[in-house]
């Protein structure tokens, strides 16, 4: 039996064109909070640390009066570099995790480092990890997940992402097979997984017990074909509109939600439509239409 009653829908600063803690091209944080509530969402993510107030008392007052709750914080990591990057990584993670915990969130979304600059396309390192780097990636991710759980009570969900080393079906399944399911779960981003050629429904059906969090997103297949042909980095691909408003792209979200519903577990499904940069008046109407569409899917 499929039930979507245990799937909690939210949105994120990303859907308002927010990628950085401070950028004049982004909407102010108060406007984001006003509009995400107006669009009908109850849950939000913190977005880039420093965009929303980092003082829990201030942020709680602002979210409470808008009827909003926080589902997760997000960090970028380069754990395939091994123990040498641990101290710097943990310093960043601890701040985000502490704020997420204080806001009552239960998850920390961990995104791997880019192998090429997401704006300029400059190749920063080999796109293929060595066996030793894979070992460092999996061992250090487990270490991070253990520390985050013990110190902050958060569940670590790793987010496969375009232009990172955890991207394609092959790399995602290799990562899952090499990590402890009791420590490390997956944040399945349907758009990024499709961007990299993966099938979200098949992944849920195969590794359902490892899926701990969802990002709902679609890609425009025509734009994606051009992006692949031109080998565009992720930032310019987004600026070209590779991530599109549902239900106009792939994957179809109805079967993804149905597959997730069959797991019969509590799951967040956070809408993320990458739109950086975008005009300030663009996000709200899209967010409202997307929320109506997801309600039509039963979510």
Note the topology.
Layout: E1 7-11, H1 29-38, E2 43-45, H2 56-64, E3 69-77, H3 86-102, E4 107-112, H4 131-152, E5 155-158, H5 169-178, E6 184-189, H6 190-195, H7 200-207, E7 211-216, E8 218-219, H8 221-230, H9 234-239, E9 243-244, H10 253-262, E10 267-271, H11 283-296
Parallel strand pairs: 1-2, 1-10, 2-3, 3-4, 4-5, 5-6, 6-7, 7-10
Antiparallel strand pairs: 8-9
The CATH class label is Alpha Beta
Mean pLDDT: 96
The CATH architecture name reads Alpha-Beta Barrel
Name the poorly predicted regions: none
Number of helices: 11
Estimate nothing, just give the exact number of structural domains. 1
Percent range for helical residues? 40-55%
Give the distance, in angstroms, between the N- and C-terminal Cα atoms.
Answer: 15 Å
CATH fourth-tier homologous superfamily: Divalent-metal-dependent TIM barrel enzymes
Radius of gyration, in angstroms, nearest whole number: 18 Å
Q: Helix/strand/pairing class, anyone? A: alpha/beta
Domain Xylose isomerase-like TIM barrel: 33-296
Protein name: 2-keto-myo-inositol dehydratase
Organism: Streptomyces tsukubensis
InterPro entries: IolE/XylAMocC-like (IPR050312), Xyl_isomerase-like_sf (IPR036237), Xyl_isomerase-like_TIM-brl (IPR013022)
Short note summarizing the structure:
Pfam families: AP_endonuc_2 (PF01261). The longest helix has 22 residues, at 131-152.
